Amino acid sequence: MESSQNFEYVYKVIMLGDCGVGKSHIMQRYVGDTFDEELDATIGAEFSEKIITLSNGVNVKVQFWDTSGDEKYSAITKSHYRGAHGALLVYDVTDYHTFLNLESWHAQLEDTLDKYAKIVVVPNKVDIPNKYPRKRKVFIEKANEYAKRKNCLFYGECSAFQNLNLRKTIEKLCEEIYTTQMECIQKGIKKPEGLKITREEKIYQERRKRCCN
Length: 213
Prior knowledge:
Layout: E1 9-16, H1 23-32, E2 45-53, E3 59-67, H2 74-79, E4 86-92, H3 96-100, H4 102-112, E5 118-124, H5 127-131, H6 140-149, E6 153-154, H7 166-186, H8 199-212
Parallel strand pairs: 1-3, 1-4, 4-5, 5-6
Antiparallel strand pairs: 2-3
Family: Belongs to the small GTPase superfamily. Rab family.
Pfam family, one: Ras
GO molecular function: GTP binding; GTPase activity
């Protein structure tokens, strides 16, 4: 649920997957409820944020980092993984190679994220096989099996174009992040991160100021 109120916690969520799987469109659709078919490919990483209200009434600010799927930007994108509380692992249901490449993307997360981070598998572009069934290259059972094998979350197939299942997927991820982080705080494993602005956001805001002035 979207909220315009203040927030208690800040969660960093990164988005990974091959070029063209629709990561930028997912962020654009969820944060701004728009879909620009002419959206340029991400160079390095793009940042956006949204305050949402969890089912228990707690407001959290979610910082989305849309990372490039282009190998030449890997050094830049990997630097944004650090400190993430969650991740969206995105593939295109009409391109089997993007599904196979989840292995390498997941391996990068295992090397960077701490064990308390939550990862959700996001099959995107389901609107295409819904209209043209022969274009489907990855069936939902594959995604479900992969998520179970990798101990990832999975809430069904999505479409940024038609805005199908994105809100449910992202907000359930945030619920899982909240539950896990609260358990860590209660056990003394982590410190509360309320009203915290990440280093990456500070850098991004400074760049925007210099660009716009």
